[in-house]
Amino acid sequence: MGTDRWELVLRALNPTPFGVRDPLFDQDAAFYVFRLPLWNSLYGWLMGVLVLSGLAAIAVHFCTRGIQVSPGAVSIARRARGHLLALAALLLLLKAAGYRLAMFDLLFSQRGVAFGAGYADVHAQLPVLRALMSSRASSQSCAWSRSVFGAGAPSWEASPRWWARRSWAGSRTRV
């Protein structure tokens, strides 16, 4: 975020309502003009910071023998695993927020005949973005619980995505 983004911050802090609400998300048009650009900029900046932090953490843990690579096996120390899982949880949470921002960007779609969210955007892409957002949030909670509680935390099998996949596969085999 730097000094080149101060204008975005000022616009977001001092919005003027337009009095016109969008029909899809019931937001005032001022949100899309004043606040959404700041949220998108902040999302991009935080994603870059988290990815670089993850790469730096992997390099540091590798140099301090927190991550050891031997022929046929990789071992990760408990502290390094907890640290990397916490970073992964933050990354997944941020990605879920990115899917939420992508939902707002559907209103600026140029894919259809007219500018804006078309039928396919509203009835196909929006539910997919909602599902992706919830799956990232549930994966984030599993990664966070693993980083905090270690091996005693609920496993990935406890995630709603795993249960939904299992029930869908089970419903296809039962006739």
Q: Please, could you describe this protein's structure?
A:
By secondary structure, this protein is mainly α. It has one domain (3-162). The protein is 66% helix and 5% strand. It contains 5 helices and 2 strands; from the N terminus they run H-H-E-E-H-H-H. It has helices spanning 6-13, 29-63, 78-105, 119-149, 160-173; strands at residues 67-70, 73-76. The chain has a two-stranded antiparallel sheet with strand order 1-2. A hairpin with a 2-residue loop joins strand 1 (67-70) and strand 2 (73-76). The longest helix is centred in the N-terminal third of the chain and has 35 residues, at 29-63. The termini are far apart. The mean pLDDT is 84.
Q: Name the average pLDDT.
A: 84
Number of helices: 5
Structural class, by secondary structure, is mainly alpha
Stretches where pLDDT is under 50 for at least 5 consecutive residues are: none
Order of helices and strands: HHEEHHH
N-to-C CA distance: 56 Å
Number of strands: 2
Question: Which range best describes the helical content: under 10%, 10-25%, 25-40%, 40-55%, 55-70% or over 70%?
Answer: 55-70%
- Domain tally: 1
Kindly provide the radius of gyration, computed on alpha-carbon positions and rounded to a whole number of angstroms: 21 Å
Please state how the strands of the largest beta sheet are arranged side by side.
1-2
Strand content: under 5%
Shape: elongated
Major beta sheet, specifics?
Answer: 2 strands, antiparallel
